[in-house]
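Um, can you check?
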Amino acid sequence: FLIYEFEVKIKWEGETRDEAGAVLETTKGTMRLPDVSATEIDDPEVEFESKSRGSALSEAMRKQGVALVKASVKAIVLELQEEVRAGAAEQKPAAAGPAPLKAPTPTPIKIEAATVKAPPAAAAAARATGKAGPAPKAAGSSDDDEGGKGGKGGDEAPPP
C-alpha cells in the first residue's frame, strides 16, 4: 500500500475583464492543502486566502478554483496509487511459479599436505604439561596452506 505525506501550496492570480477586454478587477491569493491523504481524497481540507475578500473574483476562485484544484490533486494521487499497485504486482512472485531450486550436494575436497610428526619426546612433554606448541611446518608450506578449515591443521581430511 501507499504511504505518503503530501502538502499542496498554490499561489494564484486572477482578473476579470469586460466585453472589450479591459481589466475590471485583479486579485491574488493562495490555496493550501495541508494534508492530502488517501482517506480524505474526495474532500481534502483547503485553506483559501485572497487579497480582496468578498469580491466576485475571490468568490469565484473560492468555489470554482478550489473545486478544480481538489479534482486535480485527486487525479494525481489516484495515478500515484495505481503506479504503486502496478509496481507491487510486478514484484509479486507468480502463483504457479517455478519449483524451488534444490540445494547443491556438498562434495568432499582433497587436501594435499605433508604430515610432519613431532619427535616422540616433544609430543610426550606436551601431553604431560597440557601445553602444545605450534606444530612444525612441512617444507614448502605456508600459514595460508590450511585448506580453509579455520585454523585447524591441514593434516585432516574433511569427513565424507
